[in-house]
Amino acid sequence: MSKKSSTAKDLTAGTVGGILQVLVGQPFDIVKVRMQTAPPGTYSGMVQCAGGILKNEGPLAFYKGTLSPLLGVGACVSIQFGALEYMKRVFQTINLRDGSGGVDGKTLSPSQLAIAGASAGLANSVVSGPVEHIRIRLQTQSATNPMYKGPLDAVKKIFAEKGIAGLYKGQIPTLWREGPGYASYFVAYELLMQREMATKGIRREEIAASHTILYGAIAGYA
């Protein structure tokens, strides 16, 4: 498989995975956002919050604000992948020069993985910050008298009132989350992958898909 087709395959797989992640996680996310933004004592717990949303707003309310992350997931995956692979190539070059990282220099150290992951997260925040801002605005607006008709309407109104800075409101906390978060994720994931390759003497593409999924899930808790 050529490098271009391999990259296209990775980007497509990442985008599909991102879409599924949004669809599965969105109901949980709206419950989390409602509980975080409601006055103290509004909800006794997650179940009561979810029940209230279902009773008062209907099942589709769990997918309020879904369109913006769905539209942004392709861009996010592309940016993450591009930044991560660029940093991997940089460190591979350094490793080859220093005689480390294995024969081809591709076995990155934990610190190199952390920097590569953090770079991917920070680059990704350029898109994920505004996307999450719009999503939360849509999730928390009144069901009976909504301020925004949809994500595009929200972007137009926020930009008209506050400019580009309005879309990036809350970006600093996003940067603090994305950098360390992606660093932890990629360190955990890559070390697990490296461990299996070293233990079994196999190449990366020979690792079972079930193990790849398992390592991704474990890294998500890191």
Describe this structure in words.
This protein starts with a helix and ends with a helix. The chain has 222 residues and is an all-alpha fold. The longest helix has 35 residues, at 3-37. The chain has helices at 3-37, 46-57, 67-98, 110-140, 151-162, 164-167, 171-200, 209-220.
Overall 3D form: elongated
Percent of residues in helices comes to over 70%
- Counting DSSP E segments of at least 2 residues, the number of strands comes to 0
| Number of distinct helices | 8
Structural class: mainly alpha
The description of the largest β-sheet is: none
| Proportion of strand residues | under 5%
The averaged pLDDT comes out at 88
- Cα distance, first to last residue? 32 Å
Q: Rg to the nearest angstrom? A: 20 Å
Order of helices and strands: HHHHHHHH
Show unreliable segments.
none
Descriptors:
222 residues, 76% helix, single chain
What's the gist of this structure?
The protein has 222 residues and is mainly α. 76% of the residues lie in helices and 0% in strands.
Secondary structure blueprint with pairings:
Blueprint: H1 3-37, H2 46-57, H3 67-98, H4 110-140, H5 151-162, H6 164-167, H7 171-200, H8 209-220
Helix pairs in contact: 1-2, 1-3, 3-4, 4-7, 7-8
